[in-house]
């Protein structure tokens, strides 16, 4: 008969788990007496008397020493699993729009990193079962730690982006609790040194650091550097054609040739545009004057900064006004469009010059996206009932109103910001107006500094071209009207 006990139950470890050996070979580990009996029963010894020192040897405590707290352990494992799975879903939802449809490679890379972090966190959630269980795998703790570090980095980044504006967003109800959870989870894993099972912990830490650094650099490049340096320009042309006499009326038909070409690297959304033809009248003097007082009076009375020695009191009267595009139209890179507009002018007109002003306001597609379906619909503010819905800001009465949601080019910004809306209004007499603000659907007054910041963030710019022609030159081929 051997003097060595048949069954040996080792002292509890720091979690309360006791290793069990039978005949010198490890048979498993047990949290409690019922679990010990299941191990022995599985080995074909269901009737072992655990209180018999000749059969069972207890080290570091007797058969009543079971310090495991299953409720606390199960609760921690449940919270860890729930947090990892919630963070995985959140990262996949945030990253997928950029990974699948971003305009630039850097933005797609950022989205892909967020999407790829989801399976890492899901794998960590599966490793929780082993790490808070018998720990059969040596790397289960490190896997859980990697998942929690990924969640901490993502949730911390979202929180930092949110603090920049501190606006309400539904995602705040998700990533704010997850941020608190990640701090607790990281503290718990660091406290128990969960990386102990990794063969090369320094290489593991270096890999985590490099991954986090690449993610941060990709985000900074995609949200700040690349949209700033990418070239963007539009070429506009406006010129008068050859006038033709109207056979039935004492008018001439004047063609106006307009063209727009996107010479930039990215597509743009048309926010609003306008072209207006003006007829100029003035008072002429052979002696003339070029004094400062005359120039000041011209500005005060007519708002005209132009100065000529023999011309005074310059005035411009609008003759024809229209739009080249409807708001919301997408103008692709390299696309060129042309249009000819014809307006009427009396043969014996009093105007000496014709002046055309073509201006176009656009938003860069690499900076944001517009809800074209909503923004492309015109709403007349003077119609009954419509003004209450679409004219909640000052200055849109008597104008066509266009309103639609606008999103940033990076979904990380979208989920940490409140909703933004682009507003454009147009009137044939007063020209276009536009703005981007979160307040157009609430009636709250928008701050001018904030509107300016929004316009810069979305890359909203205005380009214009002006052209003049002498009426004498325009009508030189038109026969003079016969005296009545």
Automatic annotation (TrEMBL):
<feature type="transmembrane region" description="Helical">
    <location>
        <begin position="76"/>
        <end position="97"/>
    </location>
</feature>
<keyword id="KW-1133">Transmembrane helix</keyword>
<feature type="transmembrane region" description="Helical">
    <location>
        <begin position="109"/>
        <end position="129"/>
    </location>
</feature>
<feature type="transmembrane region" description="Helical">
    <location>
        <begin position="141"/>
        <end position="163"/>
    </location>
</feature>
<feature type="transmembrane region" description="Helical">
    <location>
        <begin position="169"/>
        <end position="190"/>
    </location>
</feature>
<protein>
    <submittedName>
        <fullName>Uncharacterized protein</fullName>
    </submittedName>
</protein>
<feature type="transmembrane region" description="Helical">
    <location>
        <begin position="202"/>
        <end position="224"/>
    </location>
</feature>
<keyword id="KW-0812">Transmembrane</keyword>
<keyword id="KW-0472">Membrane</keyword>
């Amino acid at each position: 008969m051997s003097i060595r006990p048949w069954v040996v139950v080792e002292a509890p470890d720091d979690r309360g788990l006791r290793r069990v050996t039978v005949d010198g070979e490890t048979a498993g580990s047990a949290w409690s007496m019922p679990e010990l009996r299941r191990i022995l029963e599985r080995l074909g010894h269901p009737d072992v008397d655990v209180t018999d020192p000749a059969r069972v040897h207890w080290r570091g405590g007797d058969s009543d020493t079971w310090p495991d707290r299953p409720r606390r352990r199960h609760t921690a494992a449940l919270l860890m699993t729930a947090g990892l799975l919630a963070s995985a879903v959140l990262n996949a939802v945030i990253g997928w729009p950029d990974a699948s449809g971003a305009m630039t490679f850097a933005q797609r890379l950022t989205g892909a990193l967020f999407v790829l972090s989801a399976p890492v966190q899901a794998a960590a959630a599966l490793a929780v079962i082993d790490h808070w269980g018998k720990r059969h795998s040596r790397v289960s703790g490190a896997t859980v730690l990697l998942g929690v570090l990924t969640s901490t980095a993502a949730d911390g980044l979202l929180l930092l982006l949110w603090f920049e504006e501190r606006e309400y967003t539904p995602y705040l109800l998700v990533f704010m609790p997850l941020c608190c959870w990640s701090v607790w989870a990281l503290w718990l894993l660091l406290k128990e040194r969960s990386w102990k099972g990794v063969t090369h912990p320094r290489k593991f830490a270096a890999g985590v650091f490099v991954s986090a650094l690449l993610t941060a650099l990709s985000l900074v490049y995609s949200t700040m550097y690349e949209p700033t340096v990418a070239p963007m320009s539009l070429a506009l042309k406006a010129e008068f054609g050859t006038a033709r006499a109207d056979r039935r009326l004492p008018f001439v038909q004047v063609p106006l040739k307009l063209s727009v070409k996107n010479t930039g690297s990215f597509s743009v959304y048309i926010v609003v545009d306008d072209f207006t033809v003006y007829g100029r009248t003035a008072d002429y003097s052979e002696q003339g004057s070029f004094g400062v007082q005359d120039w000041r009076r011209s500005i005060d009375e007519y708002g005209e900064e132009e100065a000529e020695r023999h011309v005074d009191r310059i005035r411009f009267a609008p003759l024809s006004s229209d739009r080249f595009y409807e708001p919301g139209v997408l103008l692709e890179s390299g696309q060129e469009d042309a249009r000819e507009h014809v307006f009427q002018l009396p043969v014996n007109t009093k105007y000496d010059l014709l002046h055309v002003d073509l201006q176009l306001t656009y938003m860069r597609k690499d900076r944001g996206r517009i809800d074209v379906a909503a923004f492309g619909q015109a709403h007349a503010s003077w119609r009954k009932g419509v003004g209450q819905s679409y004219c909640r800001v000052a200055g849109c009465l008597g104008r066509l109103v266009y309103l639609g949601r606008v999103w940033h080019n990076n979904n990380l910004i979208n989920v940490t910001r409140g909703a933004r809306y682009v507003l454009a209004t147009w009137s044939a007499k007063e020209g276009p107006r536009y703005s981007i603000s979160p307040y157009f659907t609430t009636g709250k007054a928008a701050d001018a500094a904030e509107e300016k910041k929004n316009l810069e963030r979305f890359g909203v710019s205005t380009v214009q071209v002006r052209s003049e022609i002498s009426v004498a030159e325009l009508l030189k081929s038109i026969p003079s009207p016969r005296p009545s």
